[in-house]
Amino acid sequence: MLRTILWFIYFILYLVFASPFQLYCHHKVKKGKRAQVQPMIETVVFNWASRLLRLAGGTVEVIGKENIPDETAVFVSNHQSDFDIPVVLTQVGKPHALMAKQSLAKVPGIHGWMKLLQCVFLDREDESQAVRALMDGTKLVKAGNSITIFPEGTRSKGGPVKEFKGGAFRIATSAKVPIVPVTIEGTYHMLEERGRIHPGHVRVTIHKPIPTAGMSRQEVRELPERVRAQIISAMTEQKSESL
């Protein structure tokens, strides 16, 4: 319990400490000078996320970092835990945009930094808003910004990987950028399993990019299940190794 209390204290205090930097970055972005503050945005977010993992007692093993492309990409990951977010922000290239649930837009402190990362907020219960979010995501990627999407739409909390929604794949195919499947295994041990912060080991597998330019309609239709199967395969391999 003490670890959980200290973790939340740090969570809040860092956001308070970083608030002047956030205001400065927002000012520069409004002036059209994002390039001047982008390194600061990435540094602040990376430090915050990496320390959250360390304070929780999390260790992270990454396989396939060489598969992160230099070009713009849509990273597609399974979603076990709220800790998937700091894992993605620290282990899958530079901190970049996420497609996040609308409720996060109401969290003070976090919302401002997510806006600076150009995150897209999605409300799956509001069909018209969901369509706008997908359009915003597509524009963001076409402008040269990578994004990570959790197409299950909700956390599995260590259970079976849920069905993948098609939005992530429509963004990638519309923008004609590669999809990079990402398997995250073990984050649910750090929170959801016990209902409190707990040390755990996380294994991240970054798979080879899947080009989407020139895909046939049939290939596009099969893409969600193809990526889901690839993500699950890395989990199966890990469990086999542990036996």
Structure description:
The mean pLDDT is 92. Helix 4 links the parallel strand 3 and strand 4. The radius of gyration is 18 Å and the shape is globular. The protein has a seven-stranded mixed beta sheet with strand order 1-7-6-2-5-3-4, sandwiched between helices. It is built from seven helices and seven strands; from the N terminus they run H-H-E-E-H-E-H-E-H-E-H-E-E-H. The protein has one domain: 3-Layer(aba) Sandwich (Glycerol-3-phosphate (1)-acyltransferase), CATH 3.40.1130. With 243 residues, it is an alpha/beta fold. Helix 1 crosses helix 4. Helix content is 48%, strand content 14%.
Q: Which features characterize this protein?
A:
243 residues, alpha/beta, Glycerol-3-phosphate (1)-acyltransferase, 7-stranded mixed beta sheet, 7 helices, 7 strands, globular
Helix content: 40-55%
Low-confidence stretches: none
CATH top level assignment? Alpha Beta
Structural category: alpha/beta
In percent, how much strand structure appears in the residues?
Answer: 5-15%
Biggest β-sheet, characterized?
A: 7 strands, mixed
Termini, distance in Å?
31 Å
CATH superfamily: Glycerol-3-phosphate (1)-acyltransferase
Oligomer: single chain
The number of helical segments is 7
Order of helices and strands: HHEEHEHEHEHEEH
Find the count of extended strands (DSSP E, 2+ residues): 7
Question: How many domains comprise the coordinates?
Answer: 1
Shape: globular
CATH architecture: 3-Layer(aba) Sandwich
CATH topology: Glycerol-3-phosphate (1)-acyltransferase
The radius of gyration computed from the alpha-carbon positions, rounded to a whole number of angstroms, is: 18 Å
Strand order of the largest sheet: 1-7-6-2-5-3-4
Mean pLDDT: 92
